[in-house]
Amino acid sequence: MGYKSGGTWLFLMKALLFLTALGVFFMGQNLFYEQTVFYFWGNYIVLFIYAVILYFSCKIYNGFHFGRVDFQEIILSWILCLFITNTIEYFQLSLQSQQLLPAWGFVVIFAVQSSLVVPFVYFTDRIFYKFNPAHRAIIVYGREGKARNYCELLQKHQKRFTIKRVVSQDEPQKSLLCLIDESESVFFIDVDEKNREYLFDYCFRHNKRIYILPTFSSVLLNTAEVSWISNTPMFCPKSPVPDAGTRVVKRIMDIVLSTLTILLLSWLMLIVWLAIRLSGRGPAVYKQIRVTKGGKHFTLYKFRSMRIDAESDGVPRLAAKNDDRVTPVGRILRKTRIDELPQMFNVFLGSMSLVGPRPERPEIMEQYEAIYPNFAFRTKVKAGITGLAQIYGKYNTAPDEKLFLDIMYIEKFSVWQDVKLILQTFKVLFMSQSTEGVSEDSTTALQEKEG
After folding, report:
1. Helix 266-279 and helix 328-336, axial crossing angle in degrees, nearest 10
2. Which alpha helices (H) appear in 285-342, and where do they start and end?
3. Does residue 28 belong to any structural domain of this protein?
4. Which of 183, 184, 398, 431 is 20 to 30 A from 54 (CA-CA)?
């Protein structure tokens, strides 16, 4: 049972929002930049280019995902899309005019568009959930501790789901099916294969929306191609090793973008270096051994955000929520991700890539692999600064969830996916919850989830 009520109305609202943004730009161009106004078809070509850039920006930043993400995130997505689109269009019109146009006109255009987007998105979100009230949902689990974690997660999405029961897969079949009958959505968390078959079949036959927590094998199948052996279809997971041409393009992109970032933000890195040095004793740049492709160790560079005696007890640990080891300057650096900037030198030198699984410390990697042997699969490719796990997960995301996200990235690898993830990273910079630490009594994300 999906979100279908009011689908036509929602499409019209999305279209109206999109056309309003276009209309404001068109009027602003005619009002502030008369020298760029063409005769007849020229104006429509400019408007078409603007529309294409805005549309693809919205697709990349999920600006149309009403009902899937909170309206605050959709507002952030639209503001970011409008900023990027207006910036590109400003330089395009400047090139056409063969002069650098005054920017204040685009500032006004952006301000008007943003002021209209906020109430528009809020109103559309409210109407969407009026047509689509929260689904009555149950959680069927194989492991109670895991189910409890996801129940807490789903309670943060009360507009989408109302959790009625959290029930074991070992519940008598008749009562379990009755609970499914009373629900609209069913979440399956680590359900055994022997129970999964009949429960899935029952849900499909009775039009229940199902959500399945992935396993290692299911993620591989999700990215697999269909290969026909005679008249029999077989799933064939892709090779995690990109071809030579793709690797060359990826390396060129790493070198070019890391060089540009270092040159453009060298002033910021100098200010941060001075701020850390002046705030107390100790080096400004922190060096740490991490694991990359093939299990190789390399030295990762970061701006130091913790006290120099942060691990004086010799125990490697992730940063916790409200960690008192983090310095005042470091708190700002971690929240804005500026502490990661020195890793551009890692990318330039080739020990890391811009996009890839986040490199773990060897000691923490060993702990994760002891519970999840497939965790080493992440080292099939070079470690990266950003990626699926960094964008859709958080700093304290459980290691098995990071593994699933990283496998999805590796199995679906393409240069276009890298470009998309790099662009999506800008949005994550404005989402402070993505840097949330592990619980105070944990040293790794593993203990946070399993404890």
Report:
1. 150
2. 328-336
3. yes
4. 431
